[in-house]
Amino acid sequence: MRTLHPFHGGIHPPEHKSQSTRQGIAAAPLPARLVVPLRQHNGNPARPVVAVGDHVLKGQMIGAPEGFISAAVHAPASGRVMAIEMQPIPHPSGLPDVSVVLEPDGEERWIERQAIDYRAIDPADLRNRLRDAGVVGLGGAVFPSHIKLDASGLETLVINAAECEPYITCDDMLMRERAAEVVQGIAIMQHVMAAREVLIGIEDNKPEAISAMQAACQGSGFEVVTVPTLYPSGSAKQLIKLLTGKEVPSGALAPQVGVQCFNVATAYTIHRAVNHGEPVISRIVTLTGNMEEPRNYEVLIGTPVGELVKVAKPRADTSGYLMGGPMMGLPLTDPGVPVVKATNCIIATSAELFPPPPRAMPCIRCTRCAQACPADLQPQELFWFAKAKNFAKAQEYQLFDCIECGCCNYVCPSHIPLVQFYRFAKSEIHAQERDRKASERARERHEFREFRLEREKQEKAAKHAAKAAQAAASPDGGSGDEAAAKKAAIQAAIDRAKAKKAAVTPQNVDDLPPEAQAKIDEIEERRTHARESAGQAAAVQKSDEGQGAS
Amino acid sequence: MNSPLVAEKTAVNFIMLKVLAALLPAIAAYVYFFGPAILVSIALASVTALASEAAVLHLRHYPLRVYLTDGSALVTAWLLALSIPPLAPWWLIVVGTLFAILVAKHLYGGLGNNLFNPAMVGFAALMISFPSHMTHWTAPDVLAHSHWSFAQQMDFMFGGISPADSKLDAVTMATPLDTLKTQLHLERTVAEIQSSPIFSTLSGKGTEIIALLYLLGGLFLWQQRIISWHIPASFLAAMFGLAGLFYLYDPVHYASPLFHLFAGGTMLGAFFIATDYVTSPTTPLGKLIFGAGIGVCAYVIRVLGGYPDGIAFAVLFLNSAVPLIDAYTQPRVFGHAGKWFNGRKE
Amino acid sequence: MLNALLVMIGLAVALGAVLGFASLKFKVEGNPLVEKVDAILPQIQCGQCGFPGCKPYAEAIASGKAAINLCAPGGEAVMKRLADLLGVEPQPLAAEAARPKPKQVALIDEQICIGCTLCFQACPVDAIVGAAKQVHTVLDSECTGCELCLPPCPVDCITMVPVEEGLNGWKWNYPVYPISDDARKDVEVTS
Amino acid sequence: MENYFLILIGTVFVNNIVLAKILGLCPFMGVSKKLEAAIGMGMATTFVLTLASGASYLVNHYLLGSELAYLRTLSFIIVIASIVQFTEMFIHKTSPVLYQVLGIYLPLITTNCAVLGIPLLNVQENHDFIQSLFFGFGGAVGFALVLTTFAAMRERLEGADVPLPFKGSAIAMVTAGLMSIASMGFSGLVK
User: Fold this and answer.
1) Which residues of C touch D92 (CB under 8 A)?
2) Architecture of domain A18-349 in CATH?
3) How many CB atoms within 10 Å of residue D37?
């Protein structure tokens, strides 16, 4: 039995998991329309590689990864591209984003699928293939997996199968039914990262999944670790601490302490991508909450939520839908938003299941939140600063170590929307940071401009000085016609100029005090004007000489 | 609506009601030993507190029902009433409660915003302004020279009228702490003084039972996770330790540490006053410092200082240090190396 | 009497000597505060504070010659941070600076532009590109929205367009946290 | 030894210069908005006060004696002013931000009645040189301690829902009053 290293805090919200595990995973029906957002992962959104009107095959890439932190997006079904346009996406802002709208033709014709022998190819190549297969973390953070896999000589590979949020059972059902395939996916990860040990953390409220995984892990050397049910043990850093005792340093990534953590569903998609050549075009979604037939479904990415929920028969008093769990999920404002790679659960809400919180009271500093915080923060202080918009202080108290798990909110006797305050403060600080960067750039550009103007001024001055010398050399510029006289005059002028230069130059050109520079500029100005009327040129030049010598 | 959408069944008034409930056994003992006048004091303080709170809430356009039922004003009122002498005239209670609720609580913005414990601010203000009224403690019934009926007690509280056949002096006496202090000045030893009938095994007759019941109530709050162990434990430990040192040094002139734990307001202070959420530190280390600070200051004031008991002043003194303590005792945050102080790494 | 005079003179001379020595020993070169103030200013270089750019304003603040409430683009936030840095009481924004403006960028109507180059001479951050007799264009990413290019344009072809809120710049609102029933107060809190 | 200890305890807690003697309220109210500034001010005052106590003892004892006692206040002020000036130059050189944060209050230490009050109390209570130093140091530490706790409280109050008429200095004064009440508990501790 492995010794666990409990993290601080945590809560036990009612689980509500049993209702959606009574039946196995079913396939959701093919919807009439698929809306596939191009931004389904952290990093740069994918670049569309199909045009409106194109016919695409199931699994065909429709969005190519753009840059390093990005992943591909694929057609979930064969059909026609109806539009590439702004469509509502699951995002707290409710703002739309670029999506590819597909009309499935119902034929479900696949692209040519090719399994990869992952032991035979270079890991870097394998990672690129995973990027092109659109493999991202399916636990909710949707970070492109190929980047996380880029760490070799790992001490521990942690597979996150804790699934600590209430209601959600998609990972549980996945492990119960497809444990062998999950384990094959884990084997690929272990191979790529050369991990010394593999720990699979599962909360003890999923005995069926634990025994299925234990059976599948026979002989593989992977260890299934049963962890106590405690929200948020499914948070990557908390799970790593729980299983290995190592704390991932703030602001750093797990490989720094020799650990990497993947969601169990990600392992499954890696297996599908590598051993079957299937990109990520579907995922298992728990439909639960206020529904007659809560159940897990294998759902095509892009299926509109409003259409999907019908299979689970939401009750009449359903007031809305929640994407994700009740602790960290996103209430959907528009039922038209599609299922994306991050969608693990759709909960139908009702006033009875999720009553609105009572009126918020002032914070009484009871520190229940601090006792519940899995990041060892002092939520009451963070709230105090965020409320007063004292963002600098909030940052000093390590606001950015908050994982927004909602534990503080859950236990607050004053019913303060704490997490909202942290989200607000974080986004304000990010905005300030953006502004600061912008102003930094503006300052640089402004300073460069000042430098440029100064340089141009000096160049101009230098040019004028040269011109002055030239003008001195030809006192009567363009008007002379008596060649001999002119030549003599020129010679005389050259001599004069040379003499003058010898006397004057060191003082005037080498280091110019600003006043002198201004004076010269002024004179230059006058002279350019003067030269236009050739007759006055000589007189002007004379005065110039007089001044120049002074 | 935003996540999280679920919450524990809890509320501010649940907490406050549990605090009030934990006081009940001690109040029952109080009635047994000192007569039912204390109930009138508590009721008067409660009414004053609620009425003044309602007035402020109304002025500030705050919802009356929400804040009057939060129970915090009641806790303040009860603690104040339990801290002042049981036969205190009605205006003393009213003035103290008004000062506590209006100045200490609502000038700062009401619930959750005050820096000082309102009940103790009220108590200290009364102690400074009306010292003679604040030191007239009724003797426990078992010791009193004469007994006033409930009606007579009410006459005194509301009219200042003593019964014809007995003066106030007949029903009051110095508290054990007070007796100890004044008698020690008369060059008597602790042992001699404690042989007087007002003393019992632990501290004073009657008062020690009440102190024990405060302790019991406090343990109930701890068991209910309303309060953490840090403040009471460090408070009592510091007082016990300091009193023990003095006792070991000179047992003739310093009372035993056990006496100090059960005398005066120690138990009430340790479990009900010092543990007030709003005015105590939030970090575990801060709580320990805070509790120990109160223990030390209270002992120093009650034994070496000018006032008979030091709990209120010690609590207020340490209240003022709470923001500073909080700022410098922030615990290590997940994923950070070492402790950090006020935003800077150590 | 003489004693008194001698004592006072002696004191004056001795202390004067100490201070004189200190003033040489602890002489301060420049004012490092300017950099700190400048770092807070938004660097829009709009000159609405009455100083020709952010740096001069920073210098004026650091030397105590200018109030901290003159920066219009920075608004309340910058004023508060300045107050924080300098340890002075926050002040309400000066009247000219108090109008909050949405973030905006200049847009040149290429149908009208005659390529006179006057606007890019006015641009403090070189965000307008083009050459004489050619249509000019504003670099959106560099434009600070200072409006300094508007007045010089002889054909009024420059307009300011607000920057639309996108997913990258989106911010959470101040949470709904009603403590009082006072409608006015809630508005103040949520705004 | 016990004597010095009692002086320290007495000046820090019992006869606290701010809470019991109500001296030095100007910097107490002025430089308590930020904890950092308060700590700086506390240290500056500690430095100045200790030095001023010692220097004024020397001036009083060796220069003035009893015959020139009428020059006491005058010469103390000169000595203190010079020490403050010296400190100001020193801080300006070593910590410009602290210099800016202390702002007007640094020169104001000169007129901080605490700084004049302590040397005068020293004379009044016939302290010897070491006692004067301890008295000055203790008084200053008491001042610094109260100033820091007060600053931390005011930082907390920033976020408090204080009614509008009491916001800012008003509630700070109330707080100072309540702190004073709290410190009255120590009265009678040291004669």
Assistant:
1) 26, 28
2) 3-Layer(aba) Sandwich (3.40)
3) 23
Alpha carbon distance A243, A201 (integer Å)? 7
Q: Which amino acid is at C46?
A: C
| Distance of alpha carbon B255 from alpha carbon B258, whole angstroms | 8
Give tens-digit pLDDT for A12-38.
Answer: 999 999 999 999 999 999 999 999 999
Q: Tokens 């005058």 sit at which residue?
A: D74
Number of H helices, E strands in chain D: 9, 0
In this predicted model, what pLDDT tens digit does every residue of A307-356 receive, in sequence order?
Answer: 999 999 999 999 999 999 999 999 998 888 999 999 999 999 999 899 98
Chain C: nearest CA to A64, how far in angstroms? 20
The CA distances from residue C69 to A262, C40, C94, D100, in Å, are 51, 13, 6, 17
Q: Is the pLDDT of residue D55 over 60?
A: yes
Contact of A427 with chain C, judged by CB distance below 8 Å, is answered with yes
H or E stretch including B275?
none
Residue D1 lies inside a defined structural domain of this protein: no
> Residue C176 has which token pair?
């709904």
Greater confidence (C53 vs A147) lies with A147
Q: CB count, 10 Å around CB of A470?
A: 11
Measure the CA–CA gap between D95 and D47, rounded to whole angstroms.
Answer: 15
Q: How far apart are the first and last CA of chain A?
A: 97
Residue with tokens 């509301």: B158
Owning domain of residue D57: 20-186
Q: In what order do the strands lie in the sheet with A259-263?
A: A223-227, A197-203, A156-161, A259-263
The two three-digit tokens of residue A194, written as one number:
């050369």
Q: Please check whether residue D153 touches B, CB under 8 A.
A: yes
Model's pTM, two decimal places? 0.85
Query: Which chain D residue lies closest to B304 (C-alpha atoms)?
Result: D189
Helices (DSSP H) in A217-348: which residue ranges?
Answer: 236-244, 264-276, 305-308
Give me the residue spans of the domains in chain B.
9-173, 175-329
- Secondary structure element (H or E) that encloses residue A423, with its range: helix A418-473
> Rounded distance, CA D110 to CA D79, Å?
10
Distance of alpha carbon D76 from the chain centroid: 16
Tokens describing residue A545:
């000489």
Which of A363, A406, A411 is opposite residue B3, by nearest beta carbon?
Answer: A406
**Residue C88 domain flag:** yes
Mean pLDDT of B80-85: 92
Count of structural domains, chain D? 1
Our count of domains for chain C comes to 2
The two structure tokens encoding residue B107: 């000038």
Q: Do B128 and D184 touch (CB under 8 A)?
A: yes
Dist. CA B315–CA B118, nearest whole Å: 11
> Is residue C22 domain-resident?
no
> C189 to chain B, minimum CA–CA distance in Å?
14
CB contact under 8 A, A92 and B12: no
Cα D141 off chain centre by = 8
Instruction: Indicate whether B84 pLDDT > 50.
Output: yes
8-state DSSP, A67: S
- Mean pLDDT throughout B77-91? 91
- Give the whole-angstrom CA distance, residue B179 versus residue B194: 9
D13 contacts: CB under 8 Å, gap ≥ 6 = D142, D183, D186, D189
How would you classify the pairing of strands A79-88 and A96-104? antiparallel
Is the model's pLDDT at D97 over the cut of 60?
Answer: yes
B289-346 tens-digit pLDDT? 999 999 999 999 988 888 888 899 999 999 999 999 999 999 889 888 765 444 444 3
What is chain D's length?
191
CA distance A423 to chain C (A): 6
Strand, coil or helix: B13 = helix
CB burial of A283-318 (b: ≥16 within 10 Å; e: otherwise) equals bbbbbbbbbeebbbbebbbbbbbebbbebbebeeeb
Location of structure tokens 């919807």: A31
Instruction: Give the pLDDT confidence score for residue C67 in this predicted structure.
Output: 84
